[in-house]
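Worked example

This section walks through a single chain of length 205. The input is the sequence exactly as stored; nothing has been trimmed or padded.
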Amino acid sequence: MSLTVALSKGKLLAGSDALFRRAGLPFPNGEGRKLVVSAGELRFLFVKDMDVPTYVEYGVADCGVAGKDVLLETGADVLEPLDLGFGRCRVVVASPAGSAFAPDRSATTRVASKYAKLATAHFLERGLGVEVVRLAGSVEIAPGLGLADCIVDVVETGRTLAENGLEEVETVAESSARLIVNRASFHARRAEVQGLVARLEQASR
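Given that input, the structure is written out below as tokens.
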């Protein structure tokens, strides 16, 4: 039976493709809109980035590739044997440039983010209560439109922040692509899983 690997259809897909090919592993060649694709000894599920850990945690997929930012947000109960070394970015707090953003403990700060749990935990560690406004995209425009005081979002170069009048205030977490493994699969299919981990580890160096 093939190992099933859950992959994000988003920003990590190109890096996953390149890594699997460097490792000499099969990878689908443009299967259109199909979301479940078999390739050689592997079967691939193409899902949204935030759903990858869920498919792995519940055993629908044996393994997956997910960003550390997603793992921190979902809190999924999965094994994380390997940092794959691509998709590097940061989760940051950003606010309007020149605003000297300084949350006041006497008032609730409104934060726009798709990382509700991560944002809440970050501010709570500083003794600050926040109201998180969940947004799935275009988070950068929220402060300028009066929807939020700041945002918590992923950045790579910071260019998008600057183009929308924002500046980084602090880093919440560093992120990169990780190989994750279902706990039961790790024990029941140990040889196959460890073989996959070894090949991807070699290719990621």
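What to look for: The chain is about 30% helix and 30% strand.
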